[in-house]
Amino acid sequence: MTETVLVGVDGTASSLDAVRWGAREAARRQVPLRLVHAYWVPGHDFPELELTDEDVRAEMRRFGSDLLTRATRVAVETERALLVETELRAGDPRVVLLDECRRAGLAVLGSRQLSAAGGLLVGSIGLTLAIQGRCPLVVVRGVPVDRGPVLVGSDGSPSAEVALGFAFAEADLTGATLTVVRTWDGIPTDAATRHELERRSLDEQLSPWRERFPGVTVDPVVVRGKPGPVLVEYGRHARLVVVGSRGHGEVTGLLLGSTSQRLARRSPCPLAIVRADMHVNVVRESPGCRSG
Prior knowledge:
The protein has 292 residues and is α/β, with parallel strands linked by helices. It has eight helices and ten strands.
């Protein structure tokens, strides 16, 4: 089965930004872009409005079809040679998109599609895909740009390996440099020694990835501080921030509590969330893959 880049479409400006980002990503990966809109209609009549359930469904289908037509136009304007698939489905958007993730290599949402508050909150579409989806999730904030490095946070845990693999592959696809940030906190007796130990640990973790991706320029950075604020600051000059989580329904590590909220709400560029239990396809770009 050919994997796709999946984008959830809801008609907001934020979701159209996600369509643009997803279109460029699909073109680089040389896979179809799949645009999905889900509508959820209560299963009873509305006599006070003199409308039947079927009337409501018909109107929702028409509205959703118009949204997908507009999103397709935006995608083709972004990447003219792109193969675009559309799907209009009835149901809870969380359930529909979670099912669609089973056939996707990457899922993309606009930042305003996450929840009413715009963050990764319990019950939101974003959190559902982040902790249960089978593929990485990219949350697109603002107008996507094709400049700056790919930025990944690495805490030395096994979950960071999957995030590193995704980040190296993205840097390879886009021709960008890769900035790998390791943070440490606390008050050690010898700050200089702790800093050096973290630097060596990061170099050891990066060594096999450097060999696998010799064409990627890597900039390792060790910073004393908390991961959330550090990644937000470095993300001001990045095209994509990548963070990892341990999976199994528990968002931890670099996505612990306030860090996830800070990145979901304040990341100045698209944010990729990659779980440790995901299989991430490492895609290498071939000559002529990029669309102009």
